[in-house]
């Protein structure tokens, strides 16, 4: 499993140096964060080549945009993981478009990963959100986690969960708002 | 659609989750450019949902990823031969541009293109905006002459020393077409030849790369792509 603690102050100093075009700092940043980011890219898309492309794009982006990081955006690690995640989402979408349609079919959902979601991820995901996921209904929680970790569209979720799309949308929407209320308590 | 706090709250959460797709996603990205409240809401969710990312198992990426990053950022040093580096840069530009729209860079300039008479005017707008910079980097205003595209710098800063920004049309297929080096301190006007104009009308996509002073020496992009902007028809 991942080791959760990364020295955020160190990452911050590295990012500041990278913003000053410090290539050595960039290399250290890569050493510190690449496995974590790559694990995420792989988890999201389940495809080695796409994950590699996403990681590469993310670090190119970090090199050019390190100066845009600021603390309102969260811990440096969270900012970098967001970059990796959005880039992976973009590539998944672009690939679906290229493959035509992007409509959900059961075949399109097939991948090599154990599913629907491995138990350990469910458990640690719940812990990560201060136990707030526990307060959601099972269907709200599952649809949020499947969207997050598997990047499923509403249509794909409806197919995967064999539920009308309107219902899936409302699970997600209500689940997210309930999550926010809980996190703000 | 009204930007009520409730809508922003709901859309930001779905934006970060990734379930907001297609035109709705692009629309929300434009909201983010206009609204600090929308950006802050997105950052809130990036942090909260980001804690889910922390829990994913680490996987060591293959060495070639780091080599690829170096190749893209510093092609002159990383490439075995100089001749190769330019071409590789161009290939990446084509392969990688399609979905460059990410959270950090959004686009807000305006490009106006005039069709020759007697066809109806065809006006396209797009944007080059950097997050956390209140003004767009470049705005493109209507040019008097036909087939002319003009970029007006607003918040654009000079490229780093020894570098220039170069503007490209990214066609639907084929290599990127250079529109020349973009000066930062003044309006940049460029007349499009017929083929270039056609390519832009079809793909509606421009890119800006960072190149050596004076622009790419090879005619194809060698530097990193800084911005990709998709134009919208008005």
From TrEMBL, chain A:
Belongs to the sigma-70 factor family. ECF subfamily. Residues 29-96 form the RNA polymerase sigma-70 region domain. This is RNA polymerase sigma-70 factor, ECF subfamily. It comes from the Bacteria. The keyword Kinase does not apply. It comes from Marinobacter mobilis. It holds the Pfam family Sigma70_r2. One of its GO terms (biological process) is DNA-templated transcription initiation. The keyword Transcription regulation applies. Keywords: Sigma factor, Transcription, Transcription regulation. Transmembrane segments: none annotated. CDD domains: Sigma70_r4 (cd06171). Residues 129-179 form the RNA polymerase sigma factor 70 region 4 type domain. GO terms for molecular function: DNA binding; sigma factor activity.
Automatic annotation (TrEMBL), chain B:
GO terms for biological process: regulation of translation. It comes from the Bacteria. Pfam families: RskA_C. GO terms for cellular component: plasma membrane. The chain crosses the membrane at residues 91-113. GO terms for molecular function: sigma factor antagonist activity. Keywords: Membrane, Transmembrane, Transmembrane helix. Residues 100-225 form the Anti-sigma K factor RskA C-terminal domain. Coiled coil: none annotated. This is Anti-sigma-K factor RskA. It comes from Marinobacter mobilis.
């Amino acid at each position: 499993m991942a080791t959760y603690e990364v020295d955020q102050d160190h990452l911050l100093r590295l990012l500041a140096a990278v913003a000053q075009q410090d290539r050595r700092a960039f290399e250290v940043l890569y050493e510190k964060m690449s496995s974590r980011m790559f694990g995420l890219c792989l988890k999201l898309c389940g495809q080695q080549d796409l994950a590699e492309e996403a990681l590469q794009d993310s670090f190119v982006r970090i090199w050019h945009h390190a100066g845009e990081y600021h603390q309102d955006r969260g811990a440096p690690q969270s900012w970098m993981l967001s970059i990796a995640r959005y880039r992976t989402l973009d590539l998944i979408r672009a690939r679906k478009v290229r493959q035509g349609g992007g409509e959900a079919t059961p075949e399109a959902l097939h991948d090599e990963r154990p599913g629907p979601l491995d138990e350990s991820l469910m458990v640690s995901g719940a812990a990560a959100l201060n136990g707030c996921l526990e307060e959601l209904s099972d269907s709200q929680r599952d649809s949020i986690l499947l969207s997050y970790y598997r990047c499923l569209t509403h249509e794909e979720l409806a197919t995967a969960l064999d539920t009308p799309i309107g219902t899936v949308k409302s699970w997600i929407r209500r689940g997210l708002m309930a999550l926010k209320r809980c996190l703000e308590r | 659609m009204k930007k009520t706090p409730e809508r922003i709250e709901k859309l930001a959460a779905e934006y970060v989750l990734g379930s907001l797709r297609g035109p709705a996603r692009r629309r929300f990205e434009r909201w983010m450019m206009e609204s600090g409240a929308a950006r802050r809401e997105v950052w809130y969710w990036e942090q909260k949902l980001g804690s889910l990312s922390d829990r994913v198992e680490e996987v060591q990426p293959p060495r070639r990823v780091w080599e690829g990053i170096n190749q893209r950022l510093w092609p002159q040093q990383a490439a075995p031969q100089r001749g190769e580096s330019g071409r590789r840069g161009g290939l990446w530009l084509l392969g990688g541009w399609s979905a460059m729209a990410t959270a950090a860079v959004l686009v807000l300039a305006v490009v106006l293109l005039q069709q020759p008479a007697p066809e109806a005017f065809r006006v396209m707008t797009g944007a080059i905006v950097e997050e956390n910079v209140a003004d767009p980097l470049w705005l493109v205003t209507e040019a008097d002459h036909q087939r002319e595209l003009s970029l007006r710098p607003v918040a654009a800063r000079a490229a780093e020393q020894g570098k220039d920004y170069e503007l490209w049309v990214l066609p639907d297929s084929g290599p990127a077409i250079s529109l020349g080096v973009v000066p930062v301190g003044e309006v940049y006007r460029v007349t499009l030849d017929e083929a270039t104009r056609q390519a832009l009308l079809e793909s509606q996509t421009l890119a800006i790369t960072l190149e050596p002073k004076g622009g790419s020496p090879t005619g194809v992009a060698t530097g990193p792509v800084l911005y990709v902007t998709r134009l919208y028809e008005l």
